[in-house]
Specification:
By secondary structure, this protein is an alpha+beta fold. The chain has three domains: 248 residues, no CATH class; 292 residues, no CATH class; 139 residues, no CATH class. It is 47% helix and 12% strand. It contains 22 helices and 18 strands. The strands form five sheets. The protein has a five-stranded antiparallel sheet with strand order 9-12-6-1-16. A hairpin with a 3-residue loop joins β17 and β18. The two termini are 45 Å apart.
Length: 769
C-alpha cells in the first residue's frame, strides 16, 4: 500500500541510503565478471540515475506507468554511452547502431557472458546485462523503500542483483562468502531500522490519544529492536562462517556457466596428433604452411594441447571427461600476465597453405589481433582455452589470414633432475600398456628423486630409440598411430622405431607413472627464428610433452630421440627344442558365444553417458537453493510472526473449558482489530472495543464474552463454537473492506503480539475445566 502523505526528509534519506548501499554491495558480485574501469563508471552512473528517477517519482507521486516510461527512456539514453561506449557518438550520444545493439544485448547478452572467458571487460555489449539489472532494481528498491509502507520488500531487489552476480560469475570466487555476509548484515540492519521506525510511529500515534508512558514505550521499542538486530546479525555471521568453513578450500561453486552448451567441443573433432604423418607426405612436407615474423629463438609453435588418453588416441579433453583443457571460451580482452611469467614478445603470423581450426600460437598468449579482409569474422569465431594454452577459429584459417600475437615466453629449467611434480589435474589414462611399466622400471631403478627418474627416462628414450616416419623408401617401416597396441609395439620390439607421435605419447604416460602431470602438445618446431619471416613447412611438424612442475609450472620437453642411422634388424636364429610326448587332452568345452556377445553399438569400456538434462536440473537446483536460502533468511522475521499468531490462535481455540474458549475467541477478535489498525483505547472494555469497530455483531460478541466470564451459568461447547464462527465471520468482514496490501500488513503486524512472552505464545498450558 502506498504511504499516505509526504515522508520526512530524514526517512527518505535513510531509506535511500540503505537501498543504495545494499545495491552497491550486491553489484560487487559482478566485479569478477568484468574487472574493468568501465564497469565502475557504468555502475556509478546507473545507480545515480535510477535513484533520481525513483525520488522524482516519489516526490511528484508518479503512477506506475509513468515510472516505467521514465526508466525505459533512461535505458535508451544512458545505455549506449555507459554500456556500449564504442558505439556512442563523441562518447556520450547514442547512435542508431548502438541502440539496436542495446536492445539486442538486453535479451542475448546474458548467454554471451556465459560463453566468454572471464573477465569480459568492456567487450562489445556485454556490459548491457549489468546495466539493465542495476537500473531496474535500483528504481524498484528506492521506490518501494520510500513510497510503500512495508518498505522491507525493497530488499528483494538488490538481493536479485547479488544472486545473479554470483550465478553468472566464475566457478571460483573466494570473496563470495564474505560479500554475502556483508550484504546480509546491511540488509538486516535495514530491516531492523524499518521495524523500529514503524514501531516508533505507532507509539507516537498511540501517544496522541494516551500521553502517559509514551516515552518509556518508545525507548523500550528501540531497545528491543536493537537487541533483535544484534542477535539476527550474529546468527547470520555464524551461519555464514560455518558454511564457509565446510566449503571447499578452492571456493568452487555451481554456476550457470557450468550448464551452458559450449559453442566448441574439441571431442567432436579428430585428434590433431593422428594427422602428424600427413604433414610428412610429399604433398605437404615441402609446402609452406604459414610464415612467422619475430619468432623467438628456440620457440615451438603450438596448435593443440592433448591431455586425455583413452587407449586409442590422445585428444583434447572436454567438460564431459573432467578436463579443463576442453572448455573453450571467447577471449574478449587481453589476458593479464605478470612480468614474472616470462619475457614479452610480439609475433606476426601470415597463413599460406595451412588449413584447420587450430590457431598456431607461441608461448603464453596475452592477446591476439586479427588482420586482413576477414578480421571481424576471425575475431568473432576465435575461442581460447587458458588451461591448454590453445586457440581455435571455428570457421577455420585460410590463405591470406593474418594475425599478431602478444605473448610472454616462460623460462625453462637448466636441470630436469631437480624438478618436482606439480599439482595440475589431468584426466587419468583409460589404459596403460603393460610393457611401459616394465621398461620404465628398468630405466629409472637407480634414480632416487622424481626429477632424476624423469631425466633418466628421457635419456633412455634418446639412447635406445630411432626415428622413422615410414614415408620415404629408404626408411624402415614405422606404423602410424599411438594406441595402446602401437605403444606396446614400440617398447617391446628389439629396435625401438617411431616418430614424434609415438615418443610423445610414451613419454607422457611414463611421466605420469613417475608422478608428473603431463600432456602432449601438437604443433611445429621450425629451425629458423628472428625478425625475418620464418617459413614453417609441413616437415616442421612435431609433437612434444609438457610436465607440470612445482618450480616452473608447465615445462616443455622434447622426448623424441635425435635422428640417426637405424641399424639393420638382426635375423632371429631358430632354436630346436625337444618336447616330450604327452597324452592328447580331451576336447575343450566351447563356451556359449551368446554370453560374450556385445551389442554392435555398445562399447563395454564406455561409462554411462551423463544425462545433460539431469546436469542442468542439478545445477539449477543448486542455484535455486542459494536463492531460497537467502530469501528464507530475509523472510524469517515475517515467518516467525505468522508462526506466533498461528500458535496463539490454536491455544485459544483448543482451550480445555468452553468458557476459556469463549474468552479466547474474544481476545482473538480484539487482536485482529488491533492488527488492522483500529485505535483501541488502553484498558478498554469489550463494549468499547465493539463500538470502535462498529456494527451490531461486535456488540453481540462482546455481550456473549462478558456473560461467559461474569455470569454464574456454565457455558456449553456449542456456545463456544458459535463464538469462534462469529470471530471468523467478523475477520472476513473486516478484511473484505481492505486492500490486498492492508490485509498483508495486518497478517504480519506485530501490534497484537506486544506484551506476550515466548512462554505464553509457545508453552502455554491449558487451564483445567
Amino acid at each position: 500500500m502506498m504511504k499516505r502523505g509526504q515522508n520526512s526528509t530524514a526517512f527518505v534519506a535513510t531509506s535511500t541510503t540503505f537501498a543504495i548501499l545494499a545495491t552497491v554491495i550486491a553489484a560487487a558480485a559482478f566485479w569478477p565478471i568484468y574487472q574493468h574501469q568501465q564497469f565502475l563508471i557504468m555502475a556509478a552512473v546507473t545507480i545515480l540515475a535510477a535513484t533520481v528517477i525513483a525520488l522524482l517519482g516519489a516526490r511528484f507521486r508518479w503512477p506506475g506507468p509513468v515510472l516505467v516510461v521514465a526508466t525505459v527512456l533512461a535505458y535508451l539514453l544512458l545505455g549506449v554511452p555507459v554500456a556500449i561506449p564504442s558505439s556512442a557518438l563523441f562518447g556520450v550520444l547514442p547512435t542508431g547502431e548502438g541502440l539496436l545493439e542495446l536492445v539486442r544485448a538486453a535479451a542475448l547478452g546474458w548467454r554471451q557472458i556465459l560463453t566468454i572467458a572471464l573477465p569480459v571487460g568492456a567487450y562489445q555489449s556485454l556490459l548491457v546485462p549489468a546495466f539493465l539489472i542495476l537500473l531496474v532494481t535500483v528504481v524498484i528498491a528506492v521506490t518501494v523503500a520510500v513510497r510503500f509502507e512495508w518498505g522491507e520488500f525493497a530488499a528483494l531487489a538488490p538481493t536479485l542483483v547479488l544472486v545473479l552476480g554470483l550465478a553468472f560469475g566464475p566457478r571460483t570466487a573466494p570473496a563470495a562468502v564474505a560479500l554475502t555476509l556483508l550484504y546480509l548484515v546491511v540488509v538486516l540492519g535495514w530491516l531492523s531500522w524499518r521495524r523500529w521506525y514503524r514501531r516508533r510511529e505507532g507509539i507516537r500515534a498511540l501517544a496522541s490519544s494516551t500521553t502517559r508512558g509514551s516515552g518509556s514505550l518508545e525507548t523500550l521499542a528501540a531497545l528491543r529492536t536493537a537487541a533483535s538486530a544484534i542477535v539476527i546479525s550474529a546468527l547470520a555471521v555464524t551461519i555464514g562462517g560455518t558454511s564457509a568453513a565446510v566449503s571447499s578450500p578452492e571456493g568452487e561453486r555451481a554456476v550457470f556457466r557450468d550448464i551452458v552448451e559450449r559453442p566448441f567441443d574439441p571431442r567432436a573433432h579428430a585428434s590433431p596428433l593422428s594427422a602428424l604423418r600427413k604433414y610428412h607426405q610429399p604433398a605437404l612436407a615441402d609446402s609452406a604452411m604459414f610464415s612467422v615474423t619475430n619468432l623467438p629463438e628456440g620457440a615451438r609453435i603450438r596448435l593443440a594441447t592433448l591431455d586425455t588418453y583413452d587407449g586409442v588416441v590422445f585428444s583434447v579433453g572436454s567438460d564431459a571427461v573432467t578436463s579443463e583443457s576442453g572448455s573453450f571460451t571467447r577471449l574478449p580482452t587481453a589476458i593479464p600476465r605478470d612480468a614474472s611469467t616470462g619475457e614479452a614478445a610480439s609475433v606476426d603470423v601470415q597463413v599460406s597453405g595451412y588449413r584447420g581450426i587450430w590457431v598456431p600460437t607461441v608461448g603464453l598468449l596475452t592477446s591476439i589481433e586479427f588482420g586482413g579482409s576477414n578480421a571481424a569474422g576471425l575475431r568473432d569465431s576465435f575461442f581460447f582455452n587458458e588451461t591448454g594454452r590453445s586457440g581455435v577459429v571455428l570457421e577455420g584459417l585460410d590463405t591470406g589470414d593474418r594475425y599478431q600475437l602478444a605473448v610472454r615466453l616462460p623460462g625453462e629449467p637448466d636441470d630436469l633432475s631437480r624438478l618436482t611434480p606439480g599439482t595440475a589435474a589431468v584426466p587419468e589414462a583409460a589404459v596403460v600398456p603393460e610393457e611401459l611399466t616394465v621398461v620404465l622400471d628398468n630405466w629409472v631403478r637407480d634414480a632416487e628423486s622424481a626429477g632424476a627418474r624423469l631425466d633418466a627416462m628421457l635419456d633412455a628414450l634418446a639412447a635406445e630409440g630411432y626415428v622413422s616416419h615410414g614415408v620415404a623408401d629408404d626408411e624402415p617401416f614405422s606404423r602410424s598411430g599411438h594406441g595402446v597396441d602401437r605403444i606396446q609395439e614400440l617398447l617391446a620390439e628389439p629396435r625401438m622405431i617411431g616418430d614424434e607421435e609415438q615418443y610423445s605419447v610414451a613419454a607422457a604416460l611414463m611421466a605420469r607413472a613417475i608422478g608428473f602431470p603431463s600432456r602432449v602438445v601438437f604443433g611445429f618446431a621450425p629451425e629458423g627464428s628472428g625478425e625475418d619471416a620464418t617459413i614453417v613447412r609441413g616437415s616442421d611438424v612435431s609433437a612434444w610433452i609438457e610436465v607440470d612442475t612445482a618450480q616452473y609450472g608447465w615445462v616443455a620437453i622434447d622426448p623424441t630421440p635425435p635422428v640417426r642411422e637405424i641399424p639393420d634388424e638382426e635375423p632371429e636364429e631358430p632354436a630346436v627344442v625337444a618336447r616330450p610326448q604327452s597324452p592328447v587332452p580331451p576336447p575343450a568345452v566351447e563356451p556359449d558365444p551368446r554370453r560374450d556377445q556385445v551389442p554392435l553399438e555398445a562399447n563395454p569400456d564406455d561409462d554411462p553417458a551423463e544425462d545433460p538434462l539431469m546436469a542442468v536440473l542439478l545445477a539449477a537446483l543448486k542455484v535455486l537453493a542459494w536463492v531460497a536460502g537467502i530469501l528464507l533468511i530475509l523472510l524469517s522475521p515475517f515467518l516467525a510472526v505468522l508462526m506466533a499468531k498461528a500458535r496463539r490462535r490454536y491455544l485459544r481455540h483448543r482451550a480445555a473449558s468452553a468458557a476459556a474458549r469463549v474468552s479466547g475467541g474474544w481476545r482473538e477478535f480484539e487482536d485482529i482489530v488491533v492488527d488492522y489498525g483500529y485505535a483501541v483505547p488502553k484498558a478498554a472494555t469489550r463494549s468499547e472495543v465493539a463500538e470502535v469497530v462498529g456494527g451490531v455483531q461486535p456488540l453481540v460478541l462482546a455481550s456473549v464474552a462478558d456473560r461467559a466470564v461474569f455470569a454464574p451459568e456454565r457455558v456449553d461447547d456449542d456456545e463456544a463454537r458459535q463464538v469462534w464462527l462469529a470471530v471468523r465471520d467478523l475477520e472476513e468482514g473486516i478484511a473484505s473492506s481492505r486492500t490486498r496490501w492492508e490485509r498483508l500488513k495486518a497478517t504480519i503486524s506485530l501490534r497484537s503480539l506486544a506484551g506476550y512472552s515466548l512462554k505464553e505464545l509457545f508453552s502455554r498450558e491449558r487451564r483445567p475445566t
